[in-house]
Design brief:
six-stranded mixed sheet, P-loop_NTPase, globular, ABC_transporter-like_ATP-bd, ATP-binding, alpha/beta
Length: 291
Amino acid sequence: MEIIIEHLHKNYGKQKVLQDISLHIPVGMYGLLGENGAGKTTLMRILAAMSEPSAGTIRINGIDIKNKKEIRKIIGYLPQEFSVYPNMSVSSALDYLGILAELPKSIRKERINELLKQVNLEPEKNKRFKNLSGGMKRRFGIAQALLNHPKILIIDEPTAGLDPEERLRFYNLLSELAMDRVILLSTHIAGDIEAACTKAAILCAGKVIFEGNIDSLLKLGNGKVYTTILLQKELEEFKQNYHIISIYQNGANISCRFLSNEAPRKEWVSCNPTIEDSYMYLLSDHKMEVE
């Protein structure tokens, strides 16, 4: 099982949304990281056979993306904004979606009960959808995406609005599901990729600026991340010269974590990079090249 994307382009009129995207996405958890507007959702919709590419080729588990009927048989898709009729119960809503997915009545009930257990929603099966918490709604979304036993699961911004505990529970569920299928998830939160994925690609303005394993991404920040102590009056000028990651008030002074390509000054303290540091470095470096 794999997704192979070669020289994919997507235009809306004169606007180039995706430019020459080539990716190989294997079994397991694969992250698609990028800022809002980078083209992640557009790519997800194309892979889910909900939008047409302008150019390029895509093969999902050996099937050409043009064969939408066959693609939809093996794809489960959870968009960023997902809802059902708010007054329907959890089990009724899944049954309704199962009918739309053309699941035979003889297997629908058994499949729904199995999924409710898998996503830990069995105690909530009679609760109305509108009364579910944010985390429960995302788990419901996973359940509906799994109704047809998909080989490929595509999930757009899965932890939007979730608290840290729900995010952890959600990713533990996805990790279990990734044992025997491709799971592609998009996010603008670097920590989500670090928590769940072994490989990732980064999109910036519709282009791939990184593809590889998480360790390789982490190493990009080596020697680029520092902290220093500033006076309040020095902060504005410092902001103009360096990409600041975070600022902490330290009494009368300010502790500043930042990115720099310069040789370090004696008052700078080198830091081990996080995935977010490396991601921010890659984005800022790419934008400087474009400018």
